[in-house]
Amino acid sequence: MRFFLTALAALLLSAAPAAADEAAYDTLLARYVSASADGVNRVDYARWSNSRDDRAALDAYVAELAGQRPSTFERDRAFATWVNLYNAVTLQVILERYPIASIRDIRSEGTGLDPRALIGPWRTKRVTVEGRRLSLDDIENTILRPTFRDPRVHYAINCASIGCPNLMPRAWRAENLEADLDAAARAYVNHPRGVSVNANGTLRVSSIYRWFRADFGGTDANVIAHLRRYALPELAARLSGATRIAGHGYDWALNGR
Q1: Is 200 inside any structural domain?
Q2: 77: which of 148, 199, 202, 256 is 20 to 30 A away, CA to CA?
Q3: Distance of CA 60 to CAs 18, 31, 64, 149, Å?
Q4: In this structure, are residues 102 and 252 in contact, taking their beta carbons and an 8 Å threshold?
Q5: Residue 203 lies in a domain
């Protein structure tokens, strides 16, 4: 009996896909992603696009992630896996088309007459995970948002734009997930591209809080409550009397160096 159980365990282990090489992805991100003086993490797409080895390393990492079985993972590992896949595929998309001024200059392919295909690559089916062919839009809107129901997902995924929350210079991991999500939320909320309060007290926030309003509570009051949760003392004081959002904005320029 002991021999049978040992053999069964060995068989199951051999059938499981190898874990993705997060250390290799860490190396790539550390090499090409860096903080700038304006608080936006920038990607050196020009240098990365010229490195055949590092582009191949990114492709290999995406293939490793696509070979995982996130449906079998515990919650935090699944969350980190999907976020890493989204961000790595987005990097692939930019590197394939670089130089470009904005990710919105890339059209989706294979979508028929879908008008949204004209304003970005998010509808192109690019990766197969557990037998399902997925686009970036699928990963965000049919997996991450409805599965995890955590508004902080919007601080974790990166759309290669200055207006987006920063791309972390390392992989997301289950063991650090909660701390990293909170840190990403604080970094964005306390940066002007996330939230700004004008001299007259009016509040202008990222368009993320309009596009995904339901994820942040569905009302101005709930969005503002979310912002207060992550605001540092100076911003929190300025938000204390805010009751409505006066405007939204987003910078689609590429987050390149």
Answers
A1: no
A2: 256
A3: 13, 17, 6, 30
A4: yes
A5: no
Output the furthest CA–CA distance in the chain (Å, rounded): 76
Q: Provide the number of structural domains found in the chain.
A: 1
Reduced to 3 states (helix: H, G, I; strand: E, B; else coil), residue 24 is helix
Least confident of 67-71, 108-112, 226-230: 108-112
Residue range(s) defining the domain that contains residue 81: 20-187
Which token pair is 222?
A: 């709930």
Residue 28 lies in a domain: yes
Strand 203-206 to 195-197 pairing: antiparallel
By the 8 A CB rule, do 239 and 198 touch? no
Alpha helices in 16-141 (DSSP H): 22-32, 45-49, 52-66, 75-97, 136-138
Does some domain include residue 169? Answer: yes
Strand pairing category for 247-249 and 203-206: parallel
Do the beta carbons of residue 9 and residue 56 sit within 8 Å?
no
d(CA 86, CA 32): 17
The CA-to-CA distance between both ends of the chain, in Å, stands at 61
Q: Which of 82, 63, 64, 85 is nearest to 146 (CA)?
A: 82
pLDDT digits (tens, 9 = 90+) for 76-112: 999 999 999 999 999 999 999 999 999 999 999 987 6
For 137-166, the pLDDT digits (tens) are 999 999 999 999 999 999 999 999 999 999
Token output for 23:
């250390």
